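Your task:
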Amino acid sequence: MSQVIIVRVCAQVLRRLFNEGEFVAKAKSGEIAVKILKSKHPAAPKAHEPYCTRSQMLSYRRRDGAEVARAHQYLRPDGSIGASGRPDPKKVLHRGTLYQYKSPRSLASEES
Protein backbone atom coordinates (compact mmCIF):
# COMPACT_ATOMS: atom_id res chain seq x y z
CA MET A 1 0.00 0.00 0.00
CA SER A 2 1.49 3.34 -1.02
CA GLN A 3 1.66 6.22 1.40
CA VAL A 4 -0.16 9.43 0.49
CA ILE A 5 1.73 12.70 0.83
CA ILE A 6 -0.33 15.42 2.53
CA VAL A 7 0.27 19.05 1.62
CA ARG A 8 -1.56 21.89 3.34
CA VAL A 9 -2.43 24.78 1.05
CA CYS A 10 -4.52 27.95 0.92
CA ALA A 11 -8.09 28.06 -0.40
CA GLN A 12 -7.02 29.54 -3.75
CA VAL A 13 -4.75 26.58 -4.55
CA LEU A 14 -7.44 24.09 -3.52
CA ARG A 15 -10.06 25.81 -5.68
CA ARG A 16 -7.72 25.71 -8.69
CA LEU A 17 -7.05 21.98 -8.21
CA PHE A 18 -10.76 21.26 -7.65
CA ASN A 19 -11.76 23.19 -10.77
CA GLU A 20 -9.00 21.64 -12.90
CA GLY A 21 -10.14 18.20 -11.70
CA GLU A 22 -13.66 18.97 -12.96
CA PHE A 23 -15.22 17.19 -9.99
CA VAL A 24 -18.62 18.88 -10.33
CA ALA A 25 -18.88 18.00 -14.04
CA LYS A 26 -17.68 14.43 -13.40
CA ALA A 27 -20.31 14.04 -10.68
CA LYS A 28 -23.05 15.34 -12.99
CA SER A 29 -22.00 12.89 -15.72
CA GLY A 30 -21.88 9.97 -13.29
CA GLU A 31 -18.14 9.43 -13.70
CA ILE A 32 -17.71 9.91 -9.94
CA ALA A 33 -20.22 9.72 -7.09
CA VAL A 34 -21.04 12.32 -4.47
CA LYS A 35 -21.82 11.20 -0.94
CA ILE A 36 -23.27 13.66 1.57
CA LEU A 37 -21.23 13.28 4.76
CA LYS A 38 -23.09 15.94 6.77
CA SER A 39 -26.20 17.99 6.12
CA LYS A 40 -27.11 20.55 8.74
CA HIS A 41 -30.49 22.26 8.58
CA PRO A 42 -30.82 25.16 8.74
CA ALA A 43 -27.43 26.62 7.90
CA ALA A 44 -25.89 28.94 10.50
CA PRO A 45 -27.21 32.52 10.41
CA LYS A 46 -23.67 33.84 9.78
CA ALA A 47 -23.86 32.23 6.30
CA HIS A 48 -26.47 34.83 5.29
CA GLU A 49 -28.35 32.26 3.22
CA PRO A 50 -32.14 31.95 2.75
CA TYR A 51 -34.16 30.11 5.41
CA CYS A 52 -34.05 26.30 5.02
CA THR A 53 -30.63 26.35 3.33
CA ARG A 54 -28.58 23.27 4.23
CA SER A 55 -24.90 23.33 5.12
CA GLN A 56 -23.43 20.19 3.54
CA MET A 57 -20.09 18.42 3.50
CA LEU A 58 -19.67 16.35 0.33
CA SER A 59 -17.31 13.50 -0.54
CA TYR A 60 -16.47 12.97 -4.22
CA ARG A 61 -15.61 9.30 -4.83
CA ARG A 62 -14.32 7.14 -7.64
CA ARG A 63 -16.23 3.99 -8.59
CA ASP A 64 -13.97 1.95 -6.29
CA GLY A 65 -15.13 4.13 -3.36
CA ALA A 66 -11.87 6.02 -2.91
CA GLU A 67 -12.36 9.67 -2.00
CA VAL A 68 -10.80 12.08 -4.49
CA ALA A 69 -12.15 15.36 -3.10
CA ARG A 70 -14.16 16.80 -0.22
CA ALA A 71 -16.07 20.07 -0.34
CA HIS A 72 -18.57 22.17 1.58
CA GLN A 73 -21.63 23.78 0.05
CA TYR A 74 -24.79 25.65 1.01
CA LEU A 75 -27.71 23.95 -0.70
CA ARG A 76 -30.57 26.42 -0.98
CA PRO A 77 -34.24 25.35 -0.92
CA ASP A 78 -34.52 26.03 -4.68
CA GLY A 79 -31.64 23.59 -5.38
CA SER A 80 -29.06 26.26 -6.17
CA ILE A 81 -25.69 26.45 -4.42
CA GLY A 82 -25.20 29.44 -2.12
CA ALA A 83 -22.19 31.66 -1.45
CA SER A 84 -19.98 31.53 -4.60
CA GLY A 85 -22.40 29.21 -6.42
CA ARG A 86 -19.86 26.37 -6.34
CA PRO A 87 -18.79 23.83 -3.74
CA ASP A 88 -15.87 25.03 -1.58
CA PRO A 89 -13.14 22.35 -1.61
CA LYS A 90 -11.46 21.26 1.62
CA LYS A 91 -9.41 18.33 0.26
CA VAL A 92 -8.31 17.31 -3.24
CA LEU A 93 -6.35 14.22 -4.24
CA HIS A 94 -4.16 15.14 -7.20
CA ARG A 95 -1.51 12.85 -8.69
CA GLY A 96 -1.06 10.89 -5.47
CA THR A 97 -0.82 13.96 -3.23
CA LEU A 98 -3.62 14.94 -0.88
CA TYR A 99 -3.99 18.70 -0.74
CA GLN A 100 -5.86 19.98 2.33
CA TYR A 101 -7.05 23.42 3.32
CA LYS A 102 -5.02 25.33 5.85
CA SER A 103 -5.87 28.89 6.86
CA PRO A 104 -3.49 31.65 5.72
CA ARG A 105 -2.74 32.45 9.36
CA SER A 106 -1.70 28.84 10.02
CA LEU A 107 0.38 28.71 6.85
CA ALA A 108 2.19 31.93 7.85
CA SER A 109 2.97 30.59 11.34
CA GLU A 110 4.51 27.45 9.80
CA GLU A 111 6.84 29.60 7.70
CA SER A 112 8.08 31.55 10.75
Remarks:
- The mean pLDDT is 92.
- DSSP finds three helices and six strands in the chain.
- The radius of gyration is 15 Å.
- The beta strands are 5-9, 33-40, 54-61, 67-75, 88-94, 97-101.
